[in-house]
Structure formats: C-alpha cells, structure tokens
Specification:
This protein has 185 residues and is α/β, with parallel strands linked by helices. It contains six helices and six strands, in the order E-H-E-E-E-H-E-E-H-H-H-H.
C-alpha cells in the first residue's frame, strides 16, 4: 500500500473529527505513516466539517492534504456536495443513505450505502453514527485490521461511552462485511 487518501465529511456534532483521528491513530498503531488534518467552519457545531487522513506504509507522508481521495465517507448532504469532486475515479464512496442523496457525480465511484444514523439509534444513541461508519469503512476497505481500529476507538473515546462505541463499531463492521460478501456473490 502506498499513499491512501481518506476524506470524511459531515457536520459539526457528528463526530467527524473524532472519526478521522481514530483512523489516523489506527494507521499509526498498525505501524503505517499517517497524518490527520481536521477542518471546520467558524460555526463548528452544525456547520460543515471534514477530516483528512493520509496513510502510507512505505514512506513518510509529505503532504497531509487530500487532493485525490481514494475513500470518501460522507454523512451530510452539504459534505457530499462539497467533496465528491475530490474523489478519484474508481474511488470508494461510503455514505449515510438517510442523510445524503447522490447525483451523477457519484457514478465514478464504487458506492456503499450505510444507514449509519439509523444503526446508531438501534445501538442506543444517534451520536455514535460516526463509529458505525468507521466500522463499516474498516470492513469495506480492509486497510487496517479490525482489532487495531477497535483499539483506536477505545483510545479515542474512553470513559463511560466506550462500551456503546465498541458496540457501534461492531455493528458497522458487520454491516460492511455483509456488503462486501454480497458483492462477491
């Protein structure tokens, strides 16, 4: 694996920045070089935000910017509209299909619909939709093993919400695994 660019987009309050940190940290725990670059507007909660993660197992990451994303994870319509053009042709688009409607621009991608918000509600709290999405991404991408990403979730969350977040990760991972399996048939 050489340079892999991941862009996670959503709105403030969805845990988009934490999701990026978890992926960047998991890559580091795995022994890869990684960078994590969060961005958000001045309004923070409720405004568009993104996490940019670059992973490279062969060399140091020289630039943390995502210009040609291999993976785009979106959980908000405005994020999709803003970032879809950064996804390279043949890249992977993972989106919350209850919050995002795709258009013609998505045709260039391999698409996975994950109802992360509904799944998070079924786990117990809507706020863990980001972790459901990280679980699905882990299974779909197969970039970093499940146990390493789960460890990063635990390190990123801590406290009384660890069990809830681990459940959310497991639910998302299982959903993503089933999507990949059904694709092989």
């Amino acid at each position: 694996m050489s340079r892999i660019e991941i862009l996670i987009g959503g709105f403030g309050g969805q845990g988009i920045l934490l999701a990026g940190w978890i992926l960047g940290n998991a890559a580091m725990l795995r022994g890869y070089n990684s960078t994590y670059l969060p961005s958000y507007g001045p309004e923070a909660r409720g405004g568009r935000c993104a996490s940019r993660v670059v992973i490279d197992c062969e060399r140091e990451v020289d630039c943390p910017l995502v210009r040609n994303a291999d993976y785009l994870i979106v959980m908000y319509q405005e994020a999709y509209d803003s970032y879809i053009d950064l996804l390279k042709p043949g890249g992977v688009l993972i989106y919350d299909n209850d919050l995002v409607t795709l258009d013609e621009r998505a045709k260039k991608a391999k698409i996975y619909a994950v109802p992360a918000t509904k799944m998070a509600e079924s786990v117990g709290r809507r706020i863990v939709a980001n972790i459901v999405m990280i679980g699905a991404f882990t299974a779909i991408s197969n970039l970093i093993d499940k146990e390493t990403v789960k460890r990063s979730v635990i390190e990123g969350v801590r406290g009384r919400y660890v069990d809830l977040n681990v459940r959310a990760f497991e639910v998302g991972y299982e959903y993503g695994r089933k999507l990949v399996e059904s694709e092989k048939k």
